[in-house]
Amino acid sequence: MSRTERLFQLMDSLRRLPSPVTAAQLAQETDVSERTLYRDIDSLRGLGAVIDGAAGFGYTLIEDAHLPPLSFDDEELEALVLGLREVEAVGDPALAKAASRALARLQARLPDSQANRLKHAVLSAHRFVQIPEPGIDASALRKACWEERHVSFDYVDQHGAPTRREVQPLSVVFFDRSHCLIAKCLLRDAFRTFRLDRMAELAVSNQFFRPRRVSMLRDALAAYKIDTGKHP
User: Fold this and answer.
1) Which residues contact 89 (CB under 8 A, 6 or more apart)?
2) Among 47, 84, 97, 117, fewest CB within 10 Å belongs to which?
3) E strand intervals along 137-177
4) Is 0.90 topped by the overall pTM?
5) Residue 216 in contact with residue 173, Cβ under 8 Å?
6) CA–CA dist 232, 3 (Å, integer)
7) 137-146, pLDDT tens digit by residue?
8) Where's the WYL domain (predicted)?
């Protein structure tokens, strides 16, 4: 991890953890010694972050210079909380953690009254059905979608039949109880959806299909609305 990445991670920890946060906690979060942690705190202060506290007492982030002030009306704030809580509940592990960080970052930049409203929001989201874990690195798959790269993976369909698929990935969506990839399957020469928990051995190719993802996704969604039987 580079020093810049470590400082960003330290800021996220200060936003997310209950304050005051001890140096030992922050050092563990950023995987450094406490001596290095103290230097990093000084570096953040030098960059404009207002951090209260000292060694032996813990630290509290008072003002975050990296983000501009934010303000939302009450309904907008509830919508943001509900959306991020939903991602925490149904997202893959990387997205769920990102949603938690985003909530902490949002709360750090709101006026006190709205920060309290966010913390005790009326709306929330919970799932009581176990959502299957992706069998592949979902972050790598999302990146391949953005970069419009071909990917290949092992796949087991609903009948237990294994295949190796090469596809042009278009979008990752959540269908009811599972995460799915919408893609153009080169084996079937058609749009298909693939459950991420049935995928394994993801390989990202250097072969691109840009700039066709947006138009292809539009066509795939139109086809999917007509023929839901394509959902495996």
Assistant:
1) 96, 125, 126, 127
2) 47
3) 149-156, 162-175
4) no
5) no
6) 45
7) 999 999 999 9
8) 140-203
- Tell me the pLDDT band of 64, cut-offs 50, 70 and 90: low
Query: Would you tell me the crossing angle of helices 93-109 and 112-119 to the nearest 10 degrees?
Result: 150
In this predicted model, what pLDDT tens digit does every residue of 120-139 receive, in sequence order? Answer: 777 677 667 778 889 999 99
**Which of 10, 5, 13 is closest to 100 using CA atoms?**
13
Instruction: Give the list of residues 6+ apart from residue 129 with CB closer than 8 angstroms, or none.
Output: 177
Classify residue 164 as exposed, middle or buried by CB count within 10 Å of its CB (0-12, 13-18, 19+).
exposed
- Sheet containing strand 190-195, strands side by side: 190-195, 178-185, 162-175, 149-156, 199-208
Full set of structural domains in the chain with CATH = 3-63 (1.10.10.10), 74-119 (no CATH), 138-230 (2.30.30)
Residue 121 to residue 117: CA distance in whole angstroms: 5
